[in-house]
């Protein structure tokens, strides 16, 4: 093994892991857009801000298994110092969480998922409008016949592979709770037949109405990820993908769309869906998050409470009235775009 390298086991494979100094240097070059890096230069001199430093800590923590806090980077304020701190705290042989067997369904159990503080706050502030908060794709029209069985199977592949797409939300009295249902109980796919007029306006109204019907149901104890196949009597076919915002934001939604169509293409072509082995899911993240706050959170709190908050003011915004206005409207519109195969 070359000097400065170690072995990390990941999902049954063995891959080389970077030395902490090399890892921190690589992350700094990427985050701060630096062609060259002085390991003894402070993060502030590199142009780092609080957000980019939190990104750095998260990436290094994820790669090494060492929990890092903002208090750590305040003390170790250069790449070399941070790498030394990581090297001293790193376990001898870090390993990724054990991956469930491919297709595992948690033994068919409904698993409770604790609410993190930020999600609890989310519910309290938006409870009246929770059913409105959905991420919706456009109505994607296919120029060739779609394989319904392959699309249904691809939707099921996603809920099996991404446990976070199987979350359901319940309210008991005044308290919210969330659970993760087994993939066998999820129903992410729906086919809809349209027999109305064939013009775009009528079709758009129909699809909009079906989307709003799904959105407007007040209960969140149901499937919150849906793949719709809309077929018209004239032979046109559309795919619409919806996910409630508590399951996926705009960034996670891109991953969902990419995985969905990769699985569809594989199934339609008779091959195995190209999803990587599962490692950990949202429930694992929540448990690690809570464990952190029950452990080293006091150090974080002590650091932040020690800052001179009285000297800080409100950040300026161009339109103060608009900045604090909540968007709770449901908007769906059909946009027709033509894309060449080469694009």
Residue windows where pLDDT falls under 50 for at least 5 positions: 1-17, 92-104, 324-332
Please count the helical segments: 11
Global outline: elongated
Helix fraction, binned, reads 25-40%
How much beta, percentage-wise?
Answer: 15-25%
Please give the number of β-strands. Answer: 10
Distance between the termini: 44 Å
Description:
The protein has 343 residues and is α+β, with helices and mostly antiparallel strands. The model is unreliable at 1-17, 92-104 and 324-332 (pLDDT under 50). Strands 4, 5, 8, 9 and 10 form a 5-stranded mixed β-sheet that branches. Strand 6 and strand 7 (175-180) form a beta hairpin. The protein has helices at residues 20-32, 50-64, 70-75, 79-89, 117-126, 148-161, 200-216, 250-268, 282-295, 297-305, 320-323, and strands at 6-10, 13-17, 111-113, 134-136, 140-141, 167-172, 175-180, 189-194, 225-232, 237-244. Helix 1 packs antiparallel against helix 2 and helix 6 (148-161) packs across helix 8 (250-268). Helices cover 38% and strands 15% of the residues. It contains 11 helices and 10 strands. The radius of gyration is 24 Å and the shape is elongated.
């Amino acid at each position: 093994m070359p000097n400065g390298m170690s072995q990390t086991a990941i999902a049954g494979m063995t891959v080389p892991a970077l030395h902490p100094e090399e890892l921190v240097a690589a992350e700094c070059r990427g985050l701060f857009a630096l062609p060259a890096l002085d390991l003894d230069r402070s993060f502030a001199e590199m142009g780092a801000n609080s957000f980019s430093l939190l990104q750095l800590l998260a990436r290094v923590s994820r790669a090494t298994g060492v929990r890092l806090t903002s208090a750590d980077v305040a003390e170790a304020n250069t790449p070399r110092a941070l790498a030394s701190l990581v090297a001293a705290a790193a376990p001898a042989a870090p390993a990724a969480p054990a991956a469930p067997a491919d297709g595992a369904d948690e033994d068919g159990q409904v698993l409770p998922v604790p609410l993190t503080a930020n999600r609890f706050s989310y519910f309290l502030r938006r409870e009246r409008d929770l059913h409105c908060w959905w991420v919706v794709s456009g109505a994607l029209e296919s120029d060739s016949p779609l394989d319904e069985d392959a699309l249904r199977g691809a939707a099921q592949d996603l809920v099996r592979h991404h446990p976070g797409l199987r979350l359901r939300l319940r309210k008991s009295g005044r308290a919210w709770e969330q659970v993760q249902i087994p993939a066998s109980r999820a129903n992410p796919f729906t086919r809809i037949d349209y027999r109305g007029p064939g013009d775009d306006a009528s079709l758009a109204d129909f699809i909009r109405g079906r989307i709003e019907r799904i959105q407007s149901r007040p209960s969140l104890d149901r499937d919150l990820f849906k793949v719709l196949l809309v077929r018209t009597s004239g032979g046109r076919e559309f795919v619409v993908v919806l996910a409630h915002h508590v399951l996926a934001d705009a960034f996670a939604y891109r991953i969902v769309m990419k995985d969905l169509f990769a699985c569809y293409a594989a199934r339609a072509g008779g091959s195995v869906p190209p999803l990587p082995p599962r490692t950990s899911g949202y429930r694992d993240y929540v448990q690690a998050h809570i464990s952190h706050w029950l452990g080293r959170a006091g150090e974080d709190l002590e650091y932040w409470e020690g800052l001179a908050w009285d000297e800080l003011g409100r950040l300026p915004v161009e339109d103060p009235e608009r900045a604090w206005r909540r968007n709770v409207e449901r908007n769906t519109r059909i946009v027709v775009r033509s894309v060449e195969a080469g694009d």
